[in-house]
Amino acid sequence: MTVEQIAARLAELCRQEQFSVAQKELYADDAVSIEPHDIPGFDRETKGLAALKEKDKKFNAMLEARYGTTVSTPLVAGNAIAFVLAMDIKMQGRERESVRELCVYQVKDGKIISEQFFI
């Protein structure tokens, strides 16, 4: 897949809240995920697809409800992809909230090798 094809597929899956499918289809085995800051219960940096899948499971277990997800049109420059992800969610024990973050991905050899989130 080209970087543009990966960007389109990633955005489509994220809009459908199919984040685990995106990982399975598009991520390299040694992919890295970087959070914007320390978050209780999560490492700032997670390495390896298996660990990313566990991180996704842990996040989903903390969710009480999803009310919608939007994704901006992806921007592609070289091997980089970026888009704004907005989620309307309710975490367990917290009030409903809207979360917006800039998601930046790097692609190598047809797979996503890193994701980094900015709030």
Folded structure, characterized:
By secondary structure, the protein is an alpha+beta fold. The chain is 29% helix and 47% strand. The protein is built from three helices and seven strands; from the N terminus they run ααββαβββββ. Strands 1, 2, 3, 4, 5, 6 and 7 form a seven-stranded mixed β-sheet that branches. It starts with a helix and ends with a strand.
In short:
This protein has 119 residues and is α+β, with helices and mostly antiparallel strands. Helix content is 29%, strand content 47%. The chain contains three helices and seven strands.
Topology of helices and strands:
Blueprint: H1 3-15, H2 19-26, E1 27-34, E2 45-47, H3 49-62, E3 63-71, E4 75-77, E5 80-91, E6 96-108, E7 111-118
Parallel strand pairs: 1-7
Antiparallel strand pairs: 1-2, 3-5, 4-5, 5-6, 6-7
Helix pairs in contact: 1-2, 2-3
